[in-house]
Amino acid sequence: MQQRKITFIGAGNMAQAIVAGLVSTGYPAGLITVCAPSEVNRNALAARLGVHESADNLAGARQADVVVLAVKPQLMAEVCGQLRPAVDFSGKLVLSIAAGVNVSRFYALLGEPLNIVRIMPNTPSLVGKGMSGLYAPDQVGGADRNFTADLMGAVGKVCWVDQENGINSVIAAAGSAPAYFFLFMEAMQREAVRMGFDQETAGLLVRQAAAGAAALAEANSETPFATLRQNVTSKGGTTAAALQVFEQHRLAQTVADAMQAAVARAEEMEKLF
Ligand SMILES: NC(=O)C1=CN([C@@H]2O[C@H](COP(=O)(O)OP(=O)(O)OC[C@H]3O[C@@H](n4cnc5c(N)ncnc54)[C@H](OP(=O)(O)O)[C@@H]3O)[C@@H](O)[C@H]2O)C=CC1
Ligand SMILES: O=C(O)[C@@H]1CCC=N1
Fold it and tell me: Do residues 221 and 235 touch, judged by C-beta distance below 8 A?
């Protein structure tokens, strides 16, 4: 992939996952700068990965070819308000990973024209297993689109959405999704402990079952999830008994409602921030 100077504004969970994933795939650490107010996150990243760090967003953004906005949505207006008068964005590519802040809002915050791509990543980027949705307005050129896809492709898989509201669907299906699986794993571990396993063994059982299921799904990408489920489910057996309980409790509807709630919150945030 092309090598450009990248500055991350924000060094939290998501920026760390992307930066660590990038460096581990060979992207030169010397081309990456992370900016954040407190020393804790940025110093840890710099010490661990050899990237540059700074408390100065403006200097960090000025020297970059690519500025990745990686702060919480509610801080975006404040951060962009400081960048706008101090940084010339012409010739730069701006990438936002924020949920609930849309392109028209960035035009208002940073001015137009603005070469911006929205990315909706997820934290498994940290281990090269990320899933990112990408959206770019029509005027963003091929080289910048390719760079963005290569960047996130270095830490996982990517898909483009044609309409910006597709980003909110990506949030529901992938951005927030690791938390759904972790919640499920927490509940399983808790019950395994109640059944008599110590915490560590209960964690091992659940983690390995989840990792195994994910690996099977990945290795059989043409096979519908339903078939993989049926392969576990002996007629009249234990799995069928467990799945029946999920059905009685309307798991599919609960999942659908939860995903719709994520979309609704993203839409609400678009009005708030
Ligand atoms: N977490 C996730 O799974 C995902 C998150 N996102 C998006 O990523 C963005 C960041 O989320 P996440 O990483 O979870 O959040 P975190 O709270 O973990 O990180 C936020 C970062 O922003 C930094 N920050 C705060 N104020 C400023 C400022 N004025 N200038 C520069 N940096 C600042 C914080 O600094 P300090 O280190 O000093 O506290 C911190 O490093 C959000 O917009 C979210 O919507 C998108 C997809 C998935
Ligand atoms: O919870 C959030 O708002 C962010 C966006 C997707 C995952 N985390």
Answer: no
Ligand nearest to the CA of 132: 1
Residue 175 CB–ligand 1 contact under 6 Å: yes
Instruction: Note whether 127 and 197 are same-domain residues.
Output: no
**Bridge partners (DSSP) listed for residue 119:** 134
| pLDDT of 141 | 97
Residue 1 lies in a domain: no
Tell me the pTM: 0.97
- Is 38 a pocket residue for ligand 1 (Cβ < 6 Å)? yes
Q: Which ipTM value was assigned to this complex?
A: 0.99
Distance CA 22, CA 34 (A): 13
Position 143 scores a pLDDT of 97
Q: Are residues 222 and 102 in the same domain?
A: no
Q: Show which of 142, 164, 186 is a domain's final residue.
A: 164
- Tokens read off for 2: 């092309």
- Would you say 220 is a known binding-site residue? no
